[in-house]
Structure formats: structure tokens, C-alpha cells
Amino acid sequence: RFKDTFLQAFRPLLSEEERKACEKLSMPSRGENVMKLYNWHRSPNECDLRRKMSSEETVIYLEGNTYPRWPHVPDGFLLEHYEPTQDLLSMVPWSSPPDVIVHLRKEDSAGDARQGLDNNTLRALGEALPSDTYLVTNQVTWFDWFAENYNWTNPGWHEVKHSA
Predict the structure, then answer these.
(1) How far is the C-alpha of 152 from the C-alpha of 154, rounded, in Å?
(2) Beta bridge partners of 36
(3) Which run of H or E residues covers position 84?
(4) pLDDT, tens digit, 9 for 90 and up, residues 113-160
(5) CA distance 9 to 3
(6) CA quadruple 155, 72, 85, 39: dihedral positive or negative?
(7) Three-state SS at 123
(8) DSSP letter (8 states) at residue 118
(9) Taking Cα atoms as reference points, which of 29, 64, 58 lies closest to residue 43?
(10) What is the pTM of this model?
């Protein structure tokens, strides 16, 4: 629904001055102020990312589908800079969020060796987490299994095209 576009789901919290400045920008394909972070490419050079993020650049362009995996992100960091759009909120199935949301991602293919998805680990997860846990996954058979065995709720999807 959001066509892989972050800004269709979240609106930046910008001042009017910042908004006008951003409207004048065009995305370059390369350069000192461009960061490319894709989860299917090799890991980026963390030293280079830190250098760019701490530089004097006024604007740093981020192209990608993931984020730097730094050890600490302050609580509420995303919501200090973005707010969800009405379109995103209309898709959320609750009025107040559950305490625990679990995202389990089954591998995409034989070459995608994700770990921790064996039956023993899934059972341990179900036993360790509270019964009001909300599950999001690309393996729709897990919705019924966790609901029947641990009372977890879910969005009730019947098919997930790529990933949850």
C-alpha cells in the first residue's frame, strides 16, 4: 500500500523554514552527502556513516530500506522527527498499542538462512511472552498457531506478498 515509501507512512515534523528548504532540494545519486543503506548489499562502512552523520553537511540524503545498526537509539527518537500519516493510522488495528509486538520473518528462499524459527524456539517465545502479544509475520500459518497456543492476536492477513 505504501509502495516502499517511508514518507507515505510518516510525515516529517519540520518547521515552515525547513519545509521550504527541503522543497528546493533534489536527490543526488552520489556524493559526500549521500548514504546508501540496503539490507541486501554488503554492510556499509560504519566509520564512513558516522563521519557523514557528524559532518557539517546541512543535508544528508538517505537512500535505502534499512538504517545504521548503532547500539543506542534514544527512546522516542523517531517520533521526535516524524508523525504517522492518517493513511498509516487507518491500517493500525488498535486504538492503543499492545505492550508487546513481535515481528517474525520467515526466510524468503533457501539462500536466506534466517535462524531462530525452529519449532522449539517458537514454542519458547510463545511461553516467554505475555498472552496479549501482537504478531506480525510473513508466515500466515503462524497467526493461527500462536493464537491457538498462546492467545496472541494478529492482523488476520491471509497472504503476504513479500514480507510483513
Answers:
(1) 7
(2) 63
(3) strand 82-84
(4) 667 788 899 999 999 999 999 998 888 889 999 999 999 998 877 766
(5) 10
(6) negative
(7) helix
(8) S
(9) 64
(10) 0.58
